[in-house]
Amino acid sequence: MDDYRALANLIFSYAALVDAGDFAGVGELFAHGSFVGSGGSSFGAAAVERMLRETVIVYEDGTPRTKHVTTNVAVEVTGSTATSSAYFTVLQAVPGLPLQTIAAGRYADRCAARGGQWHFTERRVTVDLVGDISHHLRPKGA
Hints:
Number of strands: 6
Number of domains: 1
Shape: globular
CATH architecture: Roll
Number of helices: 3
CATH topology: Nuclear Transport Factor 2, Chain: A
Largest sheet: 6 strands, mixed
Structural class: alpha+beta
Strand order of the largest sheet: 2-1-6-5-4-3
CATH class: Alpha Beta
Distance between the termini: 44 Å
């Protein structure tokens, strides 16, 4: 698999793991990297997993009832490092509420290859548009 496809798969795997409620799997994507968002910065698998478990609401089916749609993926590879950017849109459907868009924004990623595998060294998340996230994220301090 070429580097561009492998990096795109890494970017898309984040969305699939979050939507599946597999926060340990998401954490593993950041075993050698940091996740930076509006709630601060987390480094390493355990810290990223903990951050998600503490902030994302999970429903009876074990998922946050979301679909992250990732588009406009752009990747630049320089040897064993890469940068990428992408847009995301988060959809959510929970019991009693219709399917709705709850957030949209951008990812700015830095990645590195280690042992032939690409991994995140940094993901910066910028949320540009926010809808009703009250069924997705716990209130701060809750």
